[in-house]
Amino acid sequence: MSELVNKEFKEQIIYRLNESTRMISLCFDQLPEEDIWKRPNTNSNSIGHLIVHLCGNITQYVIASLGGLEDNRERDKEFSEEKTHSKEQLLEKLKSTLYRAKEIIQNISEEELLRKREVQGFTFSGIGILIHVTEHYSYHTGQIAFWIKQLKDKKSLGFYDGIDLSIKNKKS
To answer: InterPro entries under this entry (predicted)?
Structure first.
């Protein structure tokens, strides 16, 4: 992998993580405190659970694995805890976790991006870990957005306000 590709890959991962964080923040702006731990049904998770789960996943995959720290994740607790954090605390926990993860991503070497390691019973390269974390974060961001739309009966959450999404691609 060239230094240029390495740099571009990490920049794109961080861009996508920042985009999901921006969208979750917009969702939180539209959500009253009492709805944070509300579940759509008994088989689904609240937004609070999803945020705690995202922090656990990002910590396990990036901070512990790529950062070389011990894996202390207790995944099942992420879905069983009730009202452990306020809306503000959850958003701060998420942003703090991502800040630590992005520092590791920015500083990871090419060798570490290519090195295989076992995480959560799977074997991934550092690149595979970063792809997993990015798509996992995006997946749950979509769930959070969908749940907000259901709770608030909204068509748009304002993710792309002021941007014309109908613009066609320019030919190179």
So the answer is: DinB/YfiT-like, DUF1572
CATH 1.20.120.450 fits 3-152, yes or no: yes
Query: Average pLDDT, stretch 92-113?
Result: 97
Q: Which helix (H) or strand (E) holds 119?
A: strand 116-119
Residue pair 97/55 in contact (Cβ under 8 Å)? The answer is yes
Q: Which positions ≥6 away from 132 have C-beta within 8 Å?
A: 61, 124
pLDDT tens string 143-155? 999 999 998 898 8
Extract the tokens encoding 37: 């731990």
pLDDT tens digit string along 5-33? 999 999 999 999 999 999 999 999 999 99
pTM score: 0.93
Q: Is 24 exposed, middle or buried (0-12, 13-18, 19+ CB in 10 A)?
A: buried
What is the identity of the amino acid at 152? K
> Could you tell me if 151 and 38 are in contact, meaning their C-beta atoms sit under 8 angstroms apart?
yes
Q: Name the DSSP letter for residue 124.
A: E
